[in-house]
């Protein structure tokens, strides 16, 4: 992967970045995504945010190599703290857990006043991200699930306005599996959830002798998830 040819995962993410927008890519690593978008003249400006020294320096080097210093700026800092208020029109956060993504968004939501779209790619915990988006009145507008190099990735796209994606009677299933993904149920989706159900059942069997409130809460959560999967997944 490089700034001229992205991984399938990041290429899918790039498709959802609005044409001519100011992009902030948080946790940008080598800045491949903003550089790719800059090279393809899809963004007006890019901000690559990175908290770790090594990736920060790699991102700076990549921007110079691609001759994009006039439109892409690499900034070092934690999450959305690298942004000025109302600066980014599109924010991408990829390759982290859902809890970390929501923590970054929650801490920095004051910076999102001018943001029209979020493109988020949680490695795990997509339900946590969907719940945060719902709570904060972001409209989930698209989802994708793909398998690449033996790993399964979900991509969530949220806009400020649009059609509400959840149905009142199925919201628990839709938050867990994704309202758009649940409708299509492609091979990657089925493989992911077959694996999850197998894991949940294994954990349940290990917990047979566990006692106490925490164990009971966990047991109920696992059973609820298994029941949802058996009810909703083809």
UniProtKB/TrEMBL annotation:
What keywords is this UniProt entry annotated with? Methyltransferase, Transferase
Stretches assigned to coiled coil: none
The terms under GO molecular function for this entry are: tRNA (adenine(22)-N1)-methyltransferase activity
Q: Which domain of life is it from?
A: Bacteria
Which example biological process does GO assign this protein?
A: methylation
Family annotation (InterPro entries):
SAM-dependent_MTases_sf, TrmK
What is the official name of this protein in its record?
SAM-dependent methyltransferase
What species does this protein belong to? Answer: Fictibacillus arsenicus
Its ancestry begins with:
Bacteria, Bacillati, Bacillota, Bacilli, Bacillales
